[in-house]
Structure formats: C-alpha cells, structure tokens
C-alpha cells in the first residue's frame, strides 16, 4: 500500500483531512463498478504529499491495483514525444517553421477538404505547408477517425484509422497514408485534435536516425529512470498490466475490452501520439522534469527557456481553444484553456471553472488518465485508470476540485 505522507502534506501546505476527500470522491466510481480501479500521486516541490490505490487492475481475476501497476497512458505519450522533438530542435535538427515534407516527402503535395462526402469529396490545394510547429500545436489540419463529425474523419476510418492503425503498417507507412488524405483546413488556420503527434514522432525518427522507441529509451526514459515505460509491456511484466475497460451501454459498468490486448506486445506502428504504457512512479518522474523546467534528479533534457516555451500558449493571438478549436472531442475542455507544444495551458481559471493557477499545464489519455503540472504552486498530479473513452465520466474536473480544496497555505 502507499506510504503515509501526512507529515509531508502538512509541511507543503495541504490539509491531510481534506486530502482524504480524494479517495472518498473517487471511490464511488469503483464501488459502483464504473471504473475498475485507480492510482493517484500528488506532489509539491517534488515531494509526494498524497497517493492512493483502489480497486482492481483486472476485475475478472480480482487482481488489485498495486503501486507498480502498469497502465496504458495513450495520449499522455504526446508530451513525451513533444519533449523528444524539442530536444532535437535544441540540437539544430530543424526549425519550428520547417515544412514536415523535409522529413516526410509524402507531405509535400497536400489537399484540403472543400465540400462533399467521404466518397466524393472536392478538395483544393494547400496554400501553406504543414510545418513542425503545426504538428506540435495540433493546427496542422490532420484529424482522428474516432471524431465521427466530418467526412474526412470518415475517410480515416475507411482507411483503417479509428482506434488503431491497419495491421502491418509501420509509422512511416501510416504517415504516408495520412498525407494522402485531405486536411480538414489549411495548415495553421484552426486547432483540431489529431494524429499530428504521431507524425511528429516520425519526424523524430528521421531527424535522429533512430526508431522512436530507441530514441525514447536512450534519450528520455533511460536517463530519467523510467524503467517501466515503453511501447507495450514485456512478457515478464504482463502480470502487472491493468486490463482495459469500456462502459456497458445498458448498465454503465466497466466491461473488458479486447483492444487492451495490443499492449501485450511491441506494436508495428510506434505511436508517438498514444502508444506507451507506464507506471505512476515513472510518469511522476516525467512530471518532475517538466516542473523542473527540463531538469530532474541530476538529468537535464531541455534548456529552461525551451521548457517554459513548451508550456506557453501558442494559439493565435493568445486565444483559448474555445475560440480557435473545432468543437470536437479532445483530452481537455476548451473554455479558458490554451495550447502549447504538446500540452494544454490554463489561461483563465474562471472560465475553466476550477481555481487552478494560470499557467498550469498537462494532458490526458483516452483511458481516462490525466496529469498536470502547476509551476506557480509547484504541484504535480498523476491519475491513472483504464476506462475508455475518457469522456465517460467527469473524473478530471472532479480531481481538480478535490486537489484544490485541500490546499490551505
């Protein structure tokens, strides 16, 4: 079971009794069978002030969540890929304004959707190339097949891209397939959650000369001591891997999903947008790197200015997602939230409806996972569970309420 952090909580400005509301607020989801279990780690100034585990990593065998449980983090992979890209940027591998076609030639002749159905779409030529910065900020015009709101989304699904990738295609082949599909809009014109970070992962591969898993292991995961993070859990660790669940449409109870089996092996397509598994301890270390402006535990991966630039709002005119984002699913709400280089950035706590600090940043994953870093109050939070999709329950807003009300300094 997690250690007792009462003394640390008090020393760091948290009320331990109020922190206990976190478990009480989340436990009904477990007791009612809506999520299988969860793990939670809260820290301030790098010191853990509260952690909790509850429920089961595998409901069918009653295997409990333990501190070393391995979880699919899906889109919480994206900030790691963004850090990888900015490490290469610091080394002069590219400029943020460079066309993606410099690294992936198939992106050199792009078409943009104008009108029509997925079967008979009229397109026009792109007037602007997709640039590296467009990938980092989700302003590329790419999309996801699971959005189900636009003819181009349907084209992605028809090409085999919805919650995964077609069998046999590696990352390079997937990028070529996406480049052959129309963009939703001219690059840079809007914000749309998409496969952009997967394409960014391919840029990392080409620019570094390494596969994405090799680059991650050598340059990020190894130096940070993230030994349990990777593309799929090795066979020796299958017993620690949590199962994946979806809500039953009739009862709302968590029901086993076969999609989770993909994490039992290294995937053919190394998805920088959603392919990693990790542990709470590992991702806590990554969050400390971001809190430390690119350095943690004697390791520096980014310069401090680069790290701060990553968590700066890059949306046009300083706007929030409500103003420039398509009203589709993303791993965040849109009001009062901007977007940096791979992370959401809180601009307006009033519009966000939670008294968090302006400048708080982070992201979530499709299985209802989430993390955030508050550089003002020096807080990090990692929450892991395995319920897909993340829009099923308001876990993220509930977590912010529960954390913020426990601060009394």
Automatic annotation (TrEMBL):
In what residue span(s) does the Beta-lactamase-related domain sit?
26-402
Q: Which Pfam families match?
A: Beta-lactamase
- Which protein are we looking at? Beta-lactamase family protein
In terms of superkingdom, the source organism counts as Bacteria
Coiled-coil annotation reads none
